[in-house]
């Protein structure tokens, strides 16, 4: 009898100031089953507090938020929760933005316009399957 190892589902914190996008993204991730959502927050300061409490493996970070934006929050999280991986999400279409975000600590980048088609791929790139795991 062959034993199959289930895929690793990274503990994930979602940060976005749009309640509608936050709910939709959480539902999408629940359906896809590739992550375990452990929390959702709507601003950068709360994201830092929650990340310190929850120690997520993955943070899905909105770029444009009032007060403490996603890039500032990313840089602070990289200092305070260095084991977390961060994917920046934005509706802004700019070809150099991905490189800029990566240069400031993000591990990945997705456009919100293509999140349904690209987020799963980006998560699997950052958390590749371990030997013996199903995709």
What is the fold's blueprint, element by element?
Layout: E1 11-15, H1 19-32, E2 36-41, H2 44-54, E3 58-62, H3 70-80, E4 85-90, H4 97-103, E5 108-111, H5 115-126
Parallel strand pairs: 1-2, 1-3, 3-4, 4-5
SSE pattern, N- to C-terminal: EHEHEHEHEH
- Name the CATH superfamily classification: Response regulator
**What's the assembly state of these chains?**
single chain
Shape: globular
Number of strands: 5
What does this structure look like?
This protein has 135 residues and is α/β, with parallel strands linked by helices. Helix content is 41%, strand content 19%. It has five helices and five strands; from the N terminus they run βαβαβαβαβα. Strand 4, helix 4 and strand 5 form a beta-alpha-beta unit. Helix 2 packs parallel to helix 3. The model has no long low-confidence stretch (mean pLDDT 92).
Sum up the structure in keywords.
single chain; 135 residues; alpha/beta; Rossmann fold; 5 helices; globular
Please give a quick description of this structure.
This protein has five helices and five strands; from the N terminus they run E-H-E-H-E-H-E-H-E-H. The chain is 41% helix and 19% strand. It is an alpha/beta fold and 135 residues long.
